[in-house]
User: Fold this.
Amino acid sequence: MGNWFRTTLLLGAMTALMVFIGGLLGGQQGMILAFILAVGMNFFSYWYSDKMVLKMYKAREVGPEDFPGLYTAVQELAHKAELPMPRVYIIPESSPNAFATGRNPEHAVIAVTEGLLSTMDDDEATGVLAHEMSHIKDRDILIGSIAATMAGAIMILSTMARWSAFFGGGSDDDEGGLGGIGLIVMSIVAPLAAMLIQMAISRSREYLADATGARLTGNPEWLARALEKLGAAVKKHPMHANPSTAHMFIVNPLSGGGLMHLFSTHPPLQERIARLRGTGPDPTPQAPVEEDRGKAEAAAMWEHLSK
Assistant:
């Protein structure tokens, strides 16, 4: 499924849910206000969601003079992937992790935690950076940024619904709303809906980014070792992360067990490692790193059909 189609579906689902919650809060007028809010939120998400996420984690931009090894590694991977050089950010967090964000490759950002740099050796760090560079190349960082912003909006609306129910707000059934009972139900359902929408961001994109990142470095073992370290570190020292942004990281920054594992936005870590080492099921169909290869194959097919 194409990235733009997935983005459209996500925005449509978020808009519909926000309008529905607005109807519960204020009947027909609430639906209209929620629709206006949703349109504004979608516009805002496209242009500013990446900046919000970076600010949320107090990330700061760095250059080659600050972290020369990190900057050079990103620069080399961008050259291999035939992408513009993304901006590089450092997150002041001891738990190792990383994510990519930005609305397109020309406005992309790769952010890593201080813990990642202190935990990984150079090869493992390169494997992580290659994974994030693959998200940029596959153009699925936009949908991650939008999901974070919209899920956060749903959480805010659910909180508003809960407080409105406590103070006797909400429209009556005759006015098109569901009253206090409906608000209480929505305050419970909305966070679950936000979680499910994040899960709708296909887990397969992580498998694809793993495979593409391994081809960028030429050594799948680098990323496999990094994932092992990341999994162990997150279990011991979970990151202080907003749940609405958990899907953006290379591994889930939150320590969730039991039922929470069923709602994880990431595929099983051991499965990802097994695929990288060639001991798991067939990996996601590979997409060539070089665009020229795809052009050459298309040209050959056209020549064959023209005969």
Observations:
- Confidence is low (pLDDT under 50) at residues 171-177, 282-295, 301-307.
- DSSP finds eleven helices and four strands in the chain.
- The longest strand covers residues 87-91.
- Strands lie at 60-62, 87-91, 98-101, 109-113.
